[in-house]
Amino acid sequence: MQEALIITTAIAFLLFVGVLCSWISSKLRIPDVLLLIITGMAFGAIQYKNVALIEFPNVFLNSVAILALAMIVFDSTARLRLRELDTFSLKAVNLTFLNTIFILVFFTIAAKYILNLPFWTSLLFSALMTGTSPEIMLEYTGKNKALMLLKLESIFNTPLTVILPFLVLDLMEKIKITMLTEIIEQATPFVMKFIVGIGTGVFIGIVLFKVVQKAYTQVYSPLAVIVAALLSYVLAENLGGSGVLAVTALGLFFGNAYAKDKINLLGAESVLAKALYILVFMLAGLVIKIPYTTEFFITSAIMFGVYTIIRFAGCWTSVKNAKEAIYMALNAPKGVATAAVVFMLAVHNIEGISTIIDMTFAFILYSIILSAITTWVTKLENHTARH
Predict the structure, then answer these.
(1) CA 63 and chain centroid, separation
(2) What is the dihedral of CA 7, 8, 11, 13, to 10 degrees?
(3) Distance CA 83, CA 85 (A)
(4) d(Cα 254, Cα 74) in Å, to the nearest integer?
(5) What integer pLDDT is reported at residue 307 of this predicted model?
(6) Per DSSP, which regions of the chain are E strands?
(7) If DSSP codes are grouped into helix, strand and coil, which group holds residue 241?
(8) Exposure of 8 by Cβ count < 10 A (0-12 exposed, 13-18 middle, 19+ buried)?
(9) Per-residue pLDDT, 173
(10) Which of 222, 228, 290, 347 sits at a 20 to 30 Å CA gap from 296?
(11) CA-only gyration radius of the chain, Å
């Protein structure tokens, strides 16, 4: 009972401080995720009798991360209109494909030789770095082509952020000697994750649409939306599919289908998604225990620089415009999906896992800071150009 009360008190305190941080960020016009992580890190550094003042069990961290992932992805995609995808969807798919391939190939090589990691651990690190954050990207306002491509890319690559690391883990466990035939055999379950994920999301979406249309109530219909988002995730995962892809499909389907009082339906879900968003990034900051050494910061900065250059190459190959490619390479924030996967990977006993966890948390910080600066400078340039 005492332990439960301590955890509940810590959650309430973190949410209270997180809401204040989010409000301050909105006033300062900076991404709230940056202030949330830094504040979480500050609390994580506080100790009482040589023990961290605020601690949570790993099961709790994983559960909150999964809940947040499901709710935030649904909230983001439900507000995206399919008619906005018509012009840029194929270009965004091409951008996502090229960046993913470039990162998996070249960043793996860089990680292997710069960090001196085994091949599979390097590939796992690269898989973690393939995604960008839809919950951050979709908050950015603007109508330019590059920003629209980045928003769509973040939606398309988020499922890959969750699927690819665990696919690499499967390969590490099943393939002792790498053989092409065995890798090809893994392609079937990989494709099935997409098929089952999308199918589950659409199925739950149809059921939700019918329920909301025929039996709308002010209290239970918004609750049904929340339950549907969580149900689509867990059902897809239990069937061997991608939960993130299921929630993405559900969000796109429900967001673009006509439904009575849709704004009110999404209201309660948005509040819950925001609360989980605040809590996850406060927790991410809390558990970040990167080495505060000169060597680590130099190494992580070099790795992040290499990552940015590789991403620039992928973006330039896709858009063939140097200015847009620079903007897109610098604007690649990591978010909830990356943090959630790191929480889940932390329990695995893999050679070099502590190194990639430290590096991943450093990348989350660096990418969000760089994205915030890039967005601010771009807005300043646009404002100056207009006047």
Answers:
(1) 15
(2) -110
(3) 5
(4) 9
(5) 96
(6) 47-48, 51-52
(7) coil
(8) exposed
(9) 65
(10) 347
(11) 21
Q: Is residue 358 within 8 Å of 134, Cβ to Cβ?
A: no
Q: Would you state the pLDDT for residue 127?
A: 92
C-alpha 21/C-alpha 38 separation (Å) is 10
For residue 265, the model assigns a pLDDT of 58
Could you give the number of structural domains in the chain? 1
Report d(CA 287, CA 193) in Å as an integer.
Answer: 30
Query: Which three-class secondary structure state does DSSP give residue 29?
Result: coil
Q: Could you say which residues of the chain have pLDDT below 70?
A: 1, 76, 79-87, 135, 138-143, 173-187, 215-219, 258-269, 381-387
Please tell me the distance from the alpha carbon of residue 324 to that of residue 56, in angstroms, as a whole number: 42
Measured between alpha carbons, how far is 66 from 44 in angstroms, rounded to an integer? 21
Token pair of 297 as six digits: 């910061």
For residues 244, 250, 253, 254, the Cα torsion angle rounded to the nearest 10 degrees is: -130
CB 356 within 8 A of CB 117: yes
CATH number at residue 343: 1.20.1530.20
pTM over 0.90: no
Task: Give CA–CA dist 238/260, Å, rounded.
Answer: 31
| 86: containing domain | 2-386
Separation CA 115–CA 386 (nearest Å): 46
Residue 126 CB neighbours (<10 A): 27
Provide the 10 A C-beta neighbour count for residue 275: 15
